[in-house]
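does this look right to u?? S-adenosylmethionine version
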Amino acid sequence: MSFAASWLALREPYDLAARDGDVLAAVAASLAGRPAITIVDLACGTGAMRRALGPRLGQHQAWRLVDNDLGLLARAAAGAPPPGTRVATVPLDLARDLEAALDGAPDLVTMGALLDLVSAEWLERLTVETAARLLPVYAALTYDGRASLEPADPFDETIIGAVNRHQRLDKGFGPALGPRAAAAAIKRFEAVGYSVVHGAADWVFGPQDREIQSEVLAGWASAARELGGVPLAAIVDWLTRRRDVVAAGRSSMRVGHVDMFARPMGLR
Ligand SMILES: C[S@@+](CC[C@H](N)C(=O)[O-])C[C@H]1O[C@@H](n2cnc3c(N)ncnc32)[C@H](O)[C@@H]1O
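got this back:
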């Protein structure tokens, strides 16, 4: 599955605003006082995690940014990082080579907007492999299936239902956990002996956030069309009505995400 750099750029400020402050603080506190930190960011995209988390961590940071999209990796490597920060990009297919990505004893494993794409089997691999290495895991911005729109349209529920079923399709890691991913991840990490803090990290779009609302609504319409079962004309009519409300500056949306920090109990 590919993600456009323009879409990642559009969502980045909303992701930044959505991140749960208590979870971020727990991540930063767990690494406070270390002279140097190595972080592996799985499915890094253009490097939003480094830009969000880096300013919260100590001065000497080495980031290994992993993705299978070479175009996104090139963007993640572009520009000079802040003083004291080193960035290396690692092209890897995480569906196949997760274990290789975790090599080298990092201090922290991070991922943003990844877990809803993965299967239960891949999540199990992640928990087993990180637990075996005693690695803390910060998984941000996992979509959790909650979505609400104002003003409400009678067809919203049908579209959101279709989107949540589409979320369960294979995104390259086997049948995706989709909206179940956040709860499943919390449960699995607790089961392998981690202490987990988590919190809501919802996108909140106000009437002025026209561009991102239009993109999200168009993405939902595409997902409903791809899934099948909902008449195309009804999807197009819904999208037209919703776009008109966005253009009129009357639309608001909330899209549910969860942030999680999982830490092996008794970690050094
Ligand atoms: C929703 S984007 C999130 C990007 C970034 N973490 C962020 O928060 O902006 C999902 C990312 O997963 C990457 N991805 C998807 N499947 C992958 C795979 N099999 N191996 C490595 N990366 C993958 C995509 O290239 C994309 O960068």
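Strands lie at 37-42, 61-67, 85-91, 108-112, 137-150, 194-200, 203-205, 252-264. idk if thats expected tbh
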